[in-house]
Amino acid sequence: MKITKINRIKARTYRDFTWPSDLPEFADYNLIYGWNGTGKTTLADILRMVEKRQ
């Protein structure tokens, strides 16, 4: 399954994320970066749960 876009996230530290209209869809390879404590690992955990269909 290829994920091209996340419409909305409501989990853990993501209180209510909605995909901005000016943000492009995911490509084959994507770089996610940010300051410590901004949710990079949480996003990876969420994507892992989707992959495992939990």
Helix count?
A: 1
Unreliable runs, pLDDT <50, ≥5 residues? none
Portion in helices: 10-25%
Question: What is the total number of structural domains?
Answer: 1
What is the helix/strand order? EEH
Main pleated sheet:
2 strands, antiparallel
Kindly, what is the distance between the CA atoms of the first and last residues, rounded to a whole number of angstroms?
14 Å
**Broad shape:** globular
Measured by DSSP, the beta-strand proportion falls in 15-25%
Would you report the number of β strands? 2
Describe this protein's structure:
It is a single chain. The chain is α+β, with helices and mostly antiparallel strands and 54 residues long. The protein has one domain. It has one helix and two strands; from the N terminus they run ββα. A two-stranded antiparallel ribbon has the order 1-2. The radius of gyration is 11 Å and the shape is globular. The model has no long low-confidence stretch (mean pLDDT 80).
